[in-house]
Design a protein that fits this description.
globular, 10-stranded mixed sheet, 5-stranded mixed sheet, Ubiquitin-like (UB roll), 459 residues
Length: 459
């Protein structure tokens, strides 16, 4: 991840007038209106393009339960936003006219991100885009802009998703048989997939900075250039949507589980820096090798992120990624170019930035980045002490606070925490805590194949 920047908005997306022209020429026939849900997935409807332009620019309606379900889209009671007691009513979703994007893998189709709004026009505060927007605004009030590049790991298996589901996701075969980290001689099916994905991302105006095979069989890493934070997260949701579609069409199944197999972990690394106009506040200068903004941001991350982990690791499976010498951190430590630390200083000159290695591949990018921004704001405004850096093996750094062992442990530091509530509001913390409690309950109520293998005829 370097200091290369994304193109400007007008190179990436259509304006409304451009969409009208494309519809009149017959180039666009369908508009997908998409709201990122709590899992970071795009949810919405496909609309006839002319109907969208004539009637829905101010926003269609959508059941509010898209922000109050589990990963199976099952309604979860206990949310303030909506539930059985209120009849699961609608919210209006306001299209973000800056985000009308061609989908080259869906001919004649564009996608527009949208924000759920209340009847009075205010944003729904628990919606992931609004969670991030609010934290960016807090930093903007300090005169700071966040620039972000996302680095995603995921796994590809042979066989389309429906077939994998029919087999209960058993006996999955990775598309590559062994560790191909940094390899340039890929199996033909994987090489063809890479080329197709690269072409689609480029044609959608969101080119990847790099694509590589990773350390586990079938594991892939895609890194994106630096850009404006919301734009980066919006593009990431389209990337995941495109990857799933392309993989299925090629008879493959993609997964962003944090720990899809024992001993395998996939992360979503957040690369970010703070800027004042055209000047990076993390770059060395004025006789300071480590500027004050970088020091305070690190102190905020080290002290704040322990209380925000359900926004970075939202499922019981998320915590099975954190293990010794796994390249996933087990302690809230920081270091210079140290991949065993949770917070890594990397890059050079004006490209120097932080890499946050805590979020798993299953993280919602808006929520994970919102948590990071909240922690950085905490560091900038309260000036907590920064502990010494980790100069060696971060897994042996017993002076640093450990990452929670599981979602229960993480939730105890999040639900009702003063810092979390001050940053996000009590309602938002309660909303995402409720989602975490549901995941824990679901996990505890089901017997797994591992339990049967270990105990069926042994206890």
């Amino acid at each position: 991840m370097n200091s290369q920047h994304l193109p400007e908005h007008d190179e990436l997306v259509l304006a409304v007038d451009g969409l009208r022209d494309a519809v009149e020429r017959g180039e666009v026939t369908t508009v997908m209106v998409a709201v990122p849900d709590m899992a970071g997935r795009l949810k919405g409807k496909r609309y006839d393009a002319q109907v969208f332009l004539d009637r829905l620019l101010s926003g269609p309606e959508m059941c509010a339960y898209v922000l109050a379900t589990d990963v199976d889209m099952g309604p979860v009671d206990g949310f303030d936003l909506t539930g059985w007691g209120s009849g699961y009513g609608d919210v209006r979703v306001r299209p973000d006219a800056r985000m009308i994007r061609h989908l080259p893998y869906e001919p004649g189709t564009v996608l527009v991100h949208a924000d759920p709004v209340h009847a009075d026009g205010t944003f729904v505060d628990v919606a992931p885009r609004q969670m991030l927007r609010a934290q960016l605004a807090r930093l903007q009030a300090l005169g700071l802009e966040v620039k972000t590049g996302l680095e995603s790991e995921f796994l590809l298996y042979e066989g389309d998703p429906y077939r994998a589901f029919q087999r209960g996701y058993q006996d999955l075969r990775p598309v590559s048989p062994h560790n191909l980290d940094y390899a340039l001689d890929h199996p033909p099916a994987l090489a063809d997939f890479f080329r197709h994905l690269e072409d689609v991302l480029r044609d959608a105006g969101m080119p990847a900075e790099s694509v590589k095979s990773e350390g586990a069989p079938g594991q892939v890493e895609v890194a994106f250039p630096y850009g404006e934070a919301m734009t980066a997260c919006d593009a990431y949701t389209v990337f995941k949507h495109a990857t799933r579609v392309l993989a299925a069409r090629r008879g493959m199944t993609s997964t962003w589980m944090a720990a899809p197999e024992t001993g395998v972990g996939s992360g979503l690394h957040l690369h970010l820096s703070l800027w004042d106009g055209e000047r990076s506040l993390f770059a060395p200068g004025s006789g300071q090798d480590q500027p004050d903004h970088l020091t305070r941001a690190l102190a905020g991350l080290v002290t704040g992120m322990p209380h925000l982990m359900p926004l970075c690791a939202p499922y019981p499976n998320s915590y099975k990624r954190f293990g010794p010498h796994s390249f996933a951190p087990t302690r809230f430590s920081w270091g210079a170019d140290n991949r065993t630390a949770a917070f890594r200083i990397t890059g050079h000159g004006p490209g120097r930035h932080l890499e946050v290695r805590l979020p798993g591949a299953d993280a919602n990018p808006y929520l994970a980045l919102a948590a990071v921004c909240a922690a950085i704001h905490h560091g900038l405004t309260t000036h907590p002490d920064l502990p010494d850096p980790c100069a060696g093996d971060g897994y042996e750094d017993t002076t640093a606070r450990p990452v929670p062992r599981d979602l229960v442990d993480a939730l105890m530091s999040f639900d009702g925490n003063d810092f979390a509530e001050q940053a996000f509001g009590k309602g938002a913390v309660r909303h995402y805590a409720r989602a975490a409690y549901h995941e824990i309950d679901h996990h505890f109520r089901h017997v797994t194949d591992i339990e049967r293998l270990r105990g069926l005829d042994r206890v």
